[in-house]
Amino acid sequence: MKCKNCNKKDTVKYSKYTSGEFCSKKCSKSYSTKNNRSEINKKISKTLIEKCSGHENVKINCETCKNEFKVEWRRRERRFCSIGCASTYRNIVLGVGRIAGLASAKSQSENKRSKNEIHFAEMCIDYFDKVLTNESIFNGWDADVIIEDIKVAVLWNGKWHYEKITESHSVKQVQNRDKIKIKEIKIKGYTPYVIKDMGKENKKFVKKEFKVFIDYLKLNNYICV
């Protein structure tokens, strides 16, 4: 019987080295090494084929904003689409620096309160019985106008919620905070109502938005017609 490796010499009697299939310990070892290399090469080839057949880019959903983004296959463990989303997740979801973050948001809200928002709040105070302004009653988050009578929280969103104002201003971060705020408002049992204000002080605009707001409340049976 010929040696399984060299196919020249006859096999020797069974031993722990030759297994009755090889002519020597050397041939037995050589055959085993070649086979192992072959298996390793097959595994490497399979991995490379998988990477190069559409898996070099994978799609992932960001854990903060939930938007889909693409990353290289080797970076498939990424969880966030941007540094901003990673920071938001760390600060808000995990609670790291939560108090400081909410205090900063409240400070910004108080300092950037527009005249239109103030006019709208005054109209609400005249129309309803119990109205709060910029109170942080939603798990640390506030709303611009909170109408306790009907459990409605009004968010008066100015230009900075939709457009980049300064170099350090991130619209995405602002909108991520808005999403979290709306979620907290709903959890508390209130209805969020968003008003988009892209302009300067304009009482006519405020009166128009107030009428639209009242019509919305009547249509949805929050107040009597």
Q: How many whole angstroms does the radius of gyration measure?
A: 34 Å
Helix content: 40-55%
CATH class of the largest domain: Alpha Beta
Largest sheet data = 4 strands, mixed
Global shape:
rod-shaped
Q: Roughly what fraction of the amino acids lie in strands?
A: 15-25%
- Give the overall pLDDT as a whole number: 79
Strand order of the biggest β-sheet: 3-4-5-6
| Tally of contiguous helical segments | 6
Structural class call reads alpha+beta
Structurally, how many domains make up the residues? Answer: 3
* Poorly predicted runs: 96-111
Q: How many beta-strand runs?
A: 6
> In the CATH classification, which architecture of the largest domain applies?
3-Layer(aba) Sandwich
CATH homologous superfamily placement of the largest domain: VSR Endonuclease
Distance between the termini: 103 Å
SSE pattern, N- to C-terminal? HEEHHHEEEHEH
CATH fold annotation of the largest domain: Endonuclease, Chain A
How does this structure look, described?
The model is unreliable at 96-111 (pLDDT under 50). This protein starts with 24 loop residues before the first helix and ends in a 6-residue tail after the last helix. It has 225 residues and is α+β, with helices and mostly antiparallel strands. It is rod-shaped and about 110 Å long. The protein contains 6 helices and 6 strands. Helix 4 packs across helix 6. It has a 4-stranded mixed sheet. The chain folds into 3 domains: 1-53, no CATH class; 57-87, no CATH class; 105-219, VSR Endonuclease (Endonuclease, Chain A), CATH 3.40.960.
